[in-house]
Design a protein that fits this description.
Layout (H helix, E strand, L loop, with lengths): L3 H18 L3 H21 L4 E3 L11 H9 L3 E7 L5 E5 L5 E3 L5 E3 L14 E5 L2 E3 L4 E2 L5 H8 L6 E4 L5 E2 L13 E4 L2 E4 L4
Parallel strand pairs: 1-2, 1-6, 6-9, 7-10, 9-11
Antiparallel strand pairs: 2-3, 4-5, 7-8, 11-12
Length: 195
């Protein structure tokens, strides 16, 4: 049945949203602190100078402490801004005010750049609902990051930020789904041999 992966994804996303929603604030804070340490390690190991990341929502593993650390070291940071046409614009991280884009996602209020602004980054950090141990990422269903990653020539390493229990053996996939090079979880960094 053609809709089977889509239906499986929908059910899995609902389950994962609920699991994230019921995590305690203590669990979230511990997870975010550990992920921040691992992101610092990843950025240092890869010697990054320019990254694309995102502002996490309250239920997601936190990104803000890492972004403050990176900015404090002079690493240039771009953050996504969702567009109505399904593409992402980018805006520099300045650590200042936040707004919401058309999907209600947190975004910076700095200068808006076009979709190609991401070209030249050394590392891309993406949100995910879950990731398989082979590197297949399942996002939240709108396809923004799949479109971005699929359109890049010479894509740099891409790492998804997830909780430990969201790294699974298998995820439902469709033709447009893009793999990631690794994940950062509270337990550590896992890199995949993406083909």
């Amino acid at each position: 049945m053609a809709d089977e992966p889509e239906n499986r994804k929908r059910a899995l996303r609902a389950e994962l949203r609920e699991r994230r929603r019921i995590r305690t604030s203590t669990e979230r804070e511990r997870a975010s602190a550990a992920i921040t340490q691992h992101l610092v390690q990843l950025a240092s190991d890869l010697d990054v100078h320019f990254i694309a990341a995102y502002l996490s929502t309250p239920d997601e593993p936190g990104t803000r402490e890492f972004l403050r650390w990176a900015a404090g070291r002079g690493i240039r940071i771009l953050l996504p801004v969702s567009r109505a046409d399904g593409l992402l614009d980018w805006a520099p991280y300045d650590g200042e005010d936040e707004d919401q884009d058309i999907l209600g996602m947190p975004t910076p209020t700095s200068e808006l750049l076009g979709p190609i602004a991401i070209n030249g980054v050394d590392l891309i950090l993406v949100p995910a609902a879950t990731v398989s141990r082979t590197g297949m990422r399942m996002g939240w269903g709108r396809g923004y990051f799949d479109k971005t990653l699929g359109s890049m020539e010479g894509c740099p390493p891409v790492y998804a930020l997830i909780y430990d229990d969201e790294l699974v053996d298998e995820v439902p996939t469709e033709r447009h789904d893009m793999p990631v090079d690794g994940v950062v979880t509270p337990s550590g960094i896992v890199s995949f041999a993406v083909t």
